[in-house]
Amino acid sequence: MADKAKFIEELQAKYTAKGEFITLGKAMLDGEVVKEVDINIPLKTINRHGLIAGATGTGKTKTLQVFAEQLSHKGIPSLVLDVKGDFSGIAEPGADIPIIKERYAKTGLPYEAQSFPVELMTISGEKGVKLRATVTEFGPLLLSKILDLNDTQSSIMSIVFKYSDDKGLPLIDLEDLKKLLQYLTDNDQGKADLKQNYGSISPASLGAILRSIVALEQQGATEFFGEPSFDVHDLLQTRDGKGVVNILRVQDIQNQPQLFSTFMLSLFAEIYMTFPEEGDTGKPKFVMFIDEAHLIFNEASKTLLAQIETMVKLIRSKGVGIYFITQVPGDVPENVLSQLGMKIQHALRGFTAKDRKEIDKAVENYPITEYYDAGQLIQNLGIGEAFITALNEKGIPTPLVHTFLISPESRMDVLTDAEVATLTNQSALVQKYEQSVNKDSAYEMLTTRMEQAVQAAAPEVKATVTKAQPSIFQEVIGSRAGQNFMSTLAREGAKFVLGMITGKRR
Ligand SMILES: Nc1ncnc2c1ncn2[C@@H]1O[C@H](COP(=O)(O)OP(=O)(O)OP(=O)(O)O)[C@@H](O)[C@H]1O
Ligand SMILES: [Mg+2]
């Protein structure tokens, strides 16, 4: 039996913050909840990132819900990447159910069922705030990588972007890009213009580029490219003092985790580019939670992983914290893991030799504790219990503590379709991004120019133009192309971010 009085005294001291903090639960000792010890996490070190890990069904997502709620109470907005689609209930008050009341009774903390302000977001055209980016924002480098172009084709892409820039032909969506490529290869004026100033494009290269674009469109990227492009400052809303919980529902692209990870990187980059450096404000500006993060890490390439590592480092000074939620810490690459200040470890199961290795590794990384046999207890933590270690206000790891987490104050279930409809219908942000604006961009401008050229031509030329053999452009657009977009997108997403950070993007 550990010395309870000593435990209380020690742990109280280590889990007390001078500045603002959030409370995640109560300490436990020898299987009992110790009401005297609140597990308080200082807001000051929330931007030092973290991990929520544990076997399936141990309470990771509910812990994330509690975390997001507590931040919201402090006026801190968050973004939750909801891969399983089981998070939306935070927009409705919790049910009056006995298990929750019992839980709160054990902690002695007050329970008040309540909802939190929520924005639902989408990158795939479902209900919610539509998150988009323009072709120009991606830039020729990344776009070439996404399209898996070879060096020759990539340099053509750079020329095309340069041309669009020089001639004031905005590239907003993929239609613009295709139209410009068509103009530069099928249209006499376009061809001449290009040849004179930039060199010519071989039909084979053009065909390859167009095929890649079509493949990209077939993977659902059409929705993603366009205007209005999403302003990341819209993630920072508060309502009645509560931080808005932005939920990006990505369950429909579970099978395409690369798109998800590339999107995530683009978001990191936007945040990095547009959020100012935050001095020591004592609290985070914004927190990002990535549930089912193993999906990203499993699929990510070395470049992408390296980029995540870099972004995790860079984004901290912008006052942004990132939390990865996954089953075992080993899902997160070592160099990212080593940068995570807070660890919330739910139960792990030691079924296989590999599992047991993971357990040993997890335990090795905890601060040494005299109160628990961590290796043994970690396999026996109850649902909604976790080992926690965080950073205190001085940035020093707090002692490992067996924590009895509070329950969410909001609904521990999803929204109904009707509730989703109401929520999105009432959202001003949904409205703001609802209609893709098709401004006069390359497509419209070039279509007009090409039509005028045909009108101006002699009647016999006109007839030839309309009856002409399908151009490479038409052939490619009409054909079904390969489906390798997503993997490429993920592989090269990193360079996109690099391009953005180095300012090449805009
Ligand atoms: N803090 C909590 N308070 C009350 N109940 C909880 C708590 N945490 C977990 N539970 C219960 O455990 C169930 C599973 O929790 P949760 O969905 O968070 O697990 P998970 O670790 O995210 O699982 P998965 O890996 O399958 O996503 C919940 O539906 C809830 O009934
Ligand atoms: Mg979960």
From TrEMBL:
Pfam annotation, one family:
HerA_C
PANTHER family reported for this sequence: SLR6007 PROTEIN (PTHR30121:SF6), UNCHARACTERIZED PROTEIN YJGR-RELATED (PTHR30121)
Q: Tell me which InterPro entries the record gives.
A: HerA_C, P-loop_NTPase, T4SS_component
Read off the Gene3D superfamilies from this record.
Answer: P-loop containing nucleotide triphosphate hydrolases (3.40.50.300)
Record-annotated Helicase HerA-like C-terminal domain positions? 35-480
Task: Return the protein name.
Answer: Helicase HerA-like C-terminal domain-containing protein
Q: Can you name the source organism?
A: Halpernia humi
